[in-house]
Design goal:
The chain is mainly beta. It is 11% helix and 39% strand. The strands form 2 sheets. An 11-stranded antiparallel β-sheet has the order 4-5-6-3-11-14-13-12-9-8-7. It has a 3-stranded mixed β-sheet with strand order 2-1-10. β12 and β13 form a beta hairpin. α1 packs antiparallel against α2. The longest helix is centred in the N-terminal third of the chain and has 16 residues.
């Protein structure tokens, strides 16, 4: 096993054609593994660099997390599935030791003229502006500005008391109470050290947050996500992303969750995640 190198800001540094994990990429679930945000954001960054041109919008980004990526140098392979005048579909893969550990699919659409007749639009989020909300201590990779329960647009019934002894450790901090599952979030960690975020990689890096946000109990996180899917109709504007947990359903150790995502300009899209019960780390 290769020990992750130190870096000031990024999940990875580039050496030749490989991406070397830094200490910031270490995972939560298993020693010697990489976290989902690091793996997913690397796939997003490489796919965007190689296959997204100006005037095209990445409208669907799907990541399958098929195993715990190890903290060893990674190579990312990509291929074009379909390249037309208005639609492009590309795929990326990360293989370690002959095993596929993560893959992604990115569908991009070319911007064009909108229809003359208006269609119904999702309403803006009437949440306080992020600059008017106090920051909360949570993670060095992200900054959160929790929003009050009255900013929620869905009804979440209070949960019965949980037993912390039966849970993995909590990961949401001030967002753990079910009434508090809405927040502004900005990414403080880049994908590749020294390379600024694009609007798309900023969202892709934050998207894995939808899993603990939707799958956590109030005492801890006992699900590990196996994927996530971003749908968006435009690229984010600015640094702040608004996350609101709007759905979670589970049975027999299988869960799905949904978050609505906004920026300061209005609705962006949704993030959906699926997960398996993971009642103990290790």
């Amino acid at each position: 096993m290769t020990s992750p190198v130190s870096a000031p800001d990024g999940f990875f540094v580039v050496e030749a054609d490989r991406y070397v994990p830094t200490r910031h990429s270490r995972g939560y679930w298993m020693p010697g593994s990489l976290n989902g945000a690091a793996v997913a954001s690397l796939l997003a960054a490489v796919l965007e660099q190689r296959h997204v041109e100006p005037g095209w919008i990445p409208v669907r980004f799907v990541v399958d997390l098929l195993g715990m990526a190890r903290d060893e140098p990674l190579e990312v392979s990509t291929r074009v599935v379909k390249s037309g005048g208005r639609l492009r579909l590309v795929e990326g893969e990360i293989v370690q030791g002959g095993q596929l550990v993560a893959r992604a699919s990115l569908q991009s659409l070319r911007e064009t003229e909108a229809p003359a007749n208006p269609t119904w639009q999702s309403a803006p989020w009437s949440a306080p502006h992020p600059e008017t909300v106090a920051a909360a201590s949570w993670s060095p990779a992200f900054e959160i500005r929790p929003l009050p329960p009255e900013a929620a647009r869905v009804t979440r019934a209070p949960l019965p008391p949980g037993d912390a002894a039966q849970s993995n450790m909590p990961v949401l901090g001030p967002l753990a109470p079910i009434a508090n599952r809405q927040t502004w979030l900005t990414v403080r960690r880049t994908v590749i050290a020294g390379t600024p975020h694009t609007p798309f990689t900023r969202l892709a890096t934050a998207a894995d947050f939808a899993s603990p946000f939707s799958h956590s109990s109030e005492t801890g996180i006992d699900y590990v996500n196996t994927d996530f899917t971003i749908y968006l109709h435009r690229l984010p504007v600015g640094e702040w992303l608004g996350f609101e947990m709007v759905g979670h359903s589970a049975r027999a150790g299988i869960g799905i969750g949904e978050c609505w995502v906004h920026d300061e300009a209005g609705p962006l899209g949704t993030i959906n995640v699926s997960a398996l019960a993971q009642t103990r780390r290790g």
